[in-house]
Design goal:
This protein is α+β, with helices and mostly antiparallel strands. The chain has 2 domains: 123 residues, Sufe protein. Chain: A, CATH 3.90.1010; 76 residues, Fe-S cluster assembly (FSCA) (GMP Synthetase, Chain A, domain 3). It contains 7 helices and 8 strands. The strands form 3 sheets. Strands 1-2-3 form a 3-stranded antiparallel beta sheet, with helices on one face. A 3-stranded mixed beta sheet has the order 6-7-8, covered by helices on one side. It starts with 6 loop residues before the first helix and ends with a strand. Bound molecules: FE2/S2 (inorganic) cluster (FES). FE2/S2 (inorganic) cluster binds next to helix 2 and helix 5.
């Protein structure tokens, strides 16, 4: 099994482009990989008229492949419109890097997911594109599949951590099957709020811990 990196990957890993954060980003995402538990954050500045990505930065808490793909996709996305940037695939990113070991596919998937999520976050704030849709219970449940359960390394929906969801007049209540003094309670609460608060029609997000 080949696990060695080519020179381009190593070069990008050692000297990644667009690393860091952006103040007051127009779009933001923090995504975790169910395969390994690693995380990546991505920040966007978007021109509201042309919908072009004018600036983009990422921070990776992942492996060399993830850092290299984060670097390459930020370079690929910069200057593109959000519609064009959405079309970037992990295969293209991996190809651009001259290939990644098979075992490392998920690392580039994670980087591309973070880009798509940051674009979606921008659309949610603006109430445009697909995110013009109303925030229903179904939408909330779908959004929660992007919140990781740190105890399991998979999302909170699939791992049964969400007891129930109520949506009413712009106010969302998420009941979490965990004690409120659990060591991960505040991190999970923050992640849930981060996924739901930006939506254009959401006024209030309440996260309640109802015990496991
Ligand atoms: Fe987790 Fe690469 S091993 S992102």
């Amino acid at each position: 099994m080949g696990m060695s990196y080519n020179e381009k990957v190593i070069e990008y890993f050692k000297n990644p482009k667009n690393v860091g954060t952006l103040e007051e980003p127009d779009g933001y995402a923090k995504e975790g990989s169910p395969a390994c538990g690693d995380m990546v954050s991505l920040y966007l500045k978007v021109d509201d008229e042309t919908r072009e990505i004018t600036d983009i930065k990422f921070e990776s808490y992942g492996c060399a492949s993830n850092i290299a793909t984060g670097s390459i996709i930020t370079e690929m996305a910069k200057g593109k419109t959000i519609e064009e940037a959405k079309e970037i695939t992990w295969q293209e990113a991996a190809e651009e890097l001259g290939g990644l070991p098979d075992l490392k596919t998920h690392c580039s998937v994670l980087a591309v997911d973070a880009l798509r999520e940051a674009i979606r976050n921008y659309e949610e704030r603006q109430g445009i594109g697909e995110e013009k849709r109303e925030t229903t219970q179904e939408v909330v449940e779908e959004r929660l599949t992007h919140v990781m359960n740190p105890m399991k390394g998979r999302d909170v929906m699939k791992t049964g951590l969400i007891d129930s969801v109520e949506v009413e007049d712009g106010s969302i209540t998420v009941n979490v099957a965990l004690e409120s003094d659990h060591q991960f309670a505040s991190a999970i609460k923050e992640d849930i709020e981060e996924k739901l608060e930006p939506r254009w029609d959401v006024e209030k997000v309440v996260v309640r811990f109802v015990g496991g």
